[in-house]
Amino acid sequence: MIDLQTKLVGLIGKPLEHSLSPWMHNETYTRLGLNMAYLPIEVLENDLETVINGIRKMNFIGFNVTIPHKISIIPYLDDIDPLAKQIGSVNTITCCNGFLKGYNTDGEGFVSYLETSQGINCSDKVFLIMGSGGASRAIAMTLAARKAKKIYLFNRTIEKAKQLASEIMSYYDCICQAKNLDDTTLKALIKKADVLINTTSVGLYPNIDQTPVKYDLLSSHLIVADIIYNPLHTRLLQEAKEKGCGIVTGEGMFVNQGAKAFAIWTKQPAPYSMMKRVLEEKLI
Ligand code: ATR
Predict the structure, then answer these.
(1) What CA–CA distance (Å, rounded) separates 277 from 30?
(2) What value, to the nearest 5°, has the Cα angle with vertex 23 and ends 18 and 26?
(3) What pLDDT, on the 0 to 100 scale, is given for residue 284?
(4) How does pLDDT run across 159-195, given as a tens digit for each residue?
(5) Spans of all domains in the chain
(6) Which amino acid residue places its CA nearest to atom 24 of ligand 1?
């Protein structure tokens, strides 16, 4: 039951209809008997400041941030964790007496799952990343920190990819190149890549018939990862599997980042296995 003692957390972004964070968190709180509630709050870009100022005045202990606010929220924060600052994107925020501090749990959440699920060592691999938004920033910076051999960033808006590539190279000794989204370049560089990662929203529910990389361009030597978890087997992953590629679904990153947020907000170890089980009950 929600009462005056209920600690509020939530998710701000738009759209949120695909998100299973409210389910995963609320169901976990219920099973653990915690007096907490996780609210989905759809926020348009122009309303971000107003909503943030409202949250400061309410009994929120924190919240998650998703598309499209992970970068644009930074100026409204009072403090930022050094890793999130370097990444330039925030997906988890703590709120204490109106004081907001931002963290990023996306990069470590994704890369640790990639390493464990595929048994790979990132340090000798060439990565091709689709997208250069908040999630891409987190993943690319974390891969560079793991000494990735080379990172190619493909983005619809090339300026964003160039900016991210130059930031990564200013922090790490890693070759990172921005590339235009065209099939000829993609085909040539897929041949050189070991792992292809989709960080764009292309293929996200309800647009499940879309894919960021055409079937003909995929090749069996690749490991293909998608950070989308709804649907779990995106068109990209279905086609990659058909081509004989190793595939990595978005579930691992999703549970990892959610578990890290739980630990940050409650200052308790996260019930990782329970959160994973709860999510799997809902996934298609
Ligand atoms: P997130 O925080 O989840 O990464 P984001 O910062 O809004 O979300 O980034 C979304 C990414 O998906 C961006 O790289 C975006 O490309 P632009 O930088 O050109 O906007 C990419 N993206 C979204 N819709 C896309 C589409 N239809 N085709 C190609 N790329 C798309």
Answers:
(1) 14
(2) 145
(3) 63
(4) 999 999 999 999 999 999 999 999 999 999 999 999 9
(5) 7-104+252-283, 107-249
(6) 201
| Residue 107 Cβ contacting ligand 1 at under 6 Å | no
User: Would you state the torsion angle of the CA atoms of residues 48, 279, 253, 243, taken in this order, to the nearest 10 degrees?
Assistant: -120
Strand partners, 179: 154
Please confirm, yes or no, whether 70 is among the known catalytic residues: yes
CATH class of 7-104+252-283: alpha beta
Distance separating alpha carbons of residues 219 and 225, to the nearest angstrom = 13
Q: Is the CB of 250 under 6 A from ligand 1?
A: no
132 lines ligand 1 (CB under 6 A): yes
Query: What's residue 204's pLDDT?
Result: 94
Cα 84 to middle of ligand 1, angstroms: 19
Lookup result for tokens 């983005």: 155
CA-proximal residue: ligand 1, atom 12 (nearest) = 200
Rounded distance between C-alpha atoms, residue 31 and residue 200, angstroms? 33
CATH top class, domain 107-249: alpha beta
What pLDDT is recorded for position 18?
86
All residue ranges of the chain with pLDDT < 50 are none
- Confidence at residue 1, expressed as pLDDT on a 0 to 100 scale: 86
Same fold yes or no, 7-104+252-283 and 107-249: yes
The tokens describing 279, both together, are 């999510």
Instruction: Tell me the CA distances in angstroms from 115 to 110, 146, 162, 173, 231, one per residue in order.
Output: 9, 11, 27, 20, 22
- 199: Cβ below 6 Å to ligand 1? yes
The answer, as to whether pTM is greater than 0.85, is: yes
The rounded Å distance from CA 199 to ligand 1 centre is: 8
Q: First vs last Cα of the chain: how many Å apart?
A: 29
